[in-house]
Amino acid sequence: MNSSYTHHVILSFILLFSLENIELVCGAFFADPTDGFTLVPLTKANFELQKPYDIPLEQRYSFKDGVHRLWVYADDKPHSPNSHTQPRTEIRINGLDYNSGVWQFEGYGFVPNGTSGATVAQIHGASHGATTLILRIYNGDMRYYSRDLVAKNLYDKWFRLNIIHDVNGGTVTVFIDGEKKFQANDHGPGDLYFKCGVYAAPANISYYMESRWRDIKIFRK
Ligand SMILES: *[C@@H]1O[C@H](CO)[C@@H](O)[C@H](O)[C@H]1NC(C)=O
Ligand SMILES: *[C@@H]1O[C@H](CO)[C@@H](O)[C@H](O)[C@H]1NC(C)=O
């Protein structure tokens, strides 16, 4: 073995070793909520729209340049004539209902200043109650139902939302812009699915409610 070859082998070894270390160190700082998850491909059929039953969709929803815009008024009708729920215009992720495993929703959301008392994202279904997770905007802040603060000052800017539901572990975790903001126990397994848009809270709602969503993705483990 000539010495330049040996030198080369040693250098390569050192380089490889330090690259691995850089990855380890960076991994700790730049861990992404989607690490270790597999993307579930979506088609148009996975996006079911719910809106006040007595008006056409285009009066409460638009899709332009990749942005879903959904809005609703406090005195709108529910999504079905038989329902007594609050008004909503929502995307219901369809065809991917789950009752076990680890699932993740990702989307970039935007809530205009003025929208308040509106659920902008949720996990529908649970053993106890109708929902596992409700994320509402009140005066620009995001709350878990009307309670715990999840994130502040979200008006008029795009934010990245990731929700991880570990059904077997019984937890839901919320990330804003890649940062873990909130974790809670879920409400037991059930027929579970993700939704986003605007759904009026029981109280303290603004007359006009709007949220926008783009790059919606579903992942699983
Ligand atoms: C939202 O609008 C109100 C009323 O116009 C204004 O006072 C407030 O500063 C705005 N908030 C943000 C975050 O822009
Ligand atoms: C509505 O807002 C009032 C005043 O901020 C507050 O006291 C009340 O608890 C709120 N109601 C609900 C259901 O959030």
From TrEMBL:
UniProt KW Signal keyword: yes
Transmembrane segments: none
Species of origin: Crotalaria pallida
Pfam families, A to Z: Alginate_lyase2
PANTHER family: ALGINATE LYASE (PTHR33681:SF11), BINDING PROTEIN, PUTATIVE, EXPRESSED-RELATED (PTHR33681)
Leader sequence residues: 1-27
Superkingdom of the source species: Eukaryota
Gene3D superfamilies found in the cross-reference section: 2.60.120.200
Key words, A-Z: Manganese, Signal
Domain Alginate lyase, first and last residues per copy: 45-219
Keyword Cell membrane tagged: no
Protein name as it appears in the record: Alginate lyase 2 domain-containing protein
